[in-house]
Amino acid sequence: MDVAELAIALAGTLAGIVAAYFAWLQIRRKPSEKPPATVSAAPTPHNDGDDYDVFISYSHADTDEVEKLAGELGGHGVRVAMDRLFLGPTDVIVHKVDAALRDSIHGLVVYSPASLASEWVANEYAVLMRRAIENRRRFAPVLIGDIRLDDVPEFARARYFTDLRSVSPAIYGSRVRELAQALRKPT
């Protein structure tokens, strides 16, 4: 490991520690306390101008399963933001993804071996989890494929998750219906 790699690793570690500290401050603060000015701005209030109920973060290796999930959520009245639905020719991907994240009320990460290896999913997860903690938005982890619960990030494991691994069509439908109901509830 050369000096540049060591510096990058150190910077990443420090950023993680700082983020964890501020998340801990948010969690331990009593509801009556105002947030310190240096921690974060006030939570973004929900307004009727939000375009989507949920932003779905996933690996493109799981597109077929995720499109099925998105279609079923849509059938239950959930307005879904999924890159294949909001991206078009000549769009600047990072700008459109950022706008969709901003315009979504809640967040959902589809966990699979492929999504755990994806840098895009890791970054989207960071945004969605921050919003869940700071702005009291819902964060919904969904398990598919050959994923072990121990492989899912700790903050995501702290949430009730929807397990769609190896389930019958009836159970799949029931779990997606339950998920849709949670995503349509006001925060």
UniProtKB/TrEMBL annotation:
Organism: Acrocarpospora phusangensis
InterPro entries according to UniProt: TIR_dom, Toll_tir_struct_dom_sf
Keyword match Secreted: no
SUPFAM superfamilies referenced in this protein's UniProt entry, alphabetically: Toll/Interleukin receptor TIR domain
Keywords: Membrane, Transmembrane, Transmembrane helix
One matching Pfam family: TIR_2
Keyword Cell membrane: no
Protein name in the entry: TIR domain-containing protein
Domain TIR stretches: 50-187
GO BP of this protein: signal transduction
TM helices/strands, residue ranges: 6-25
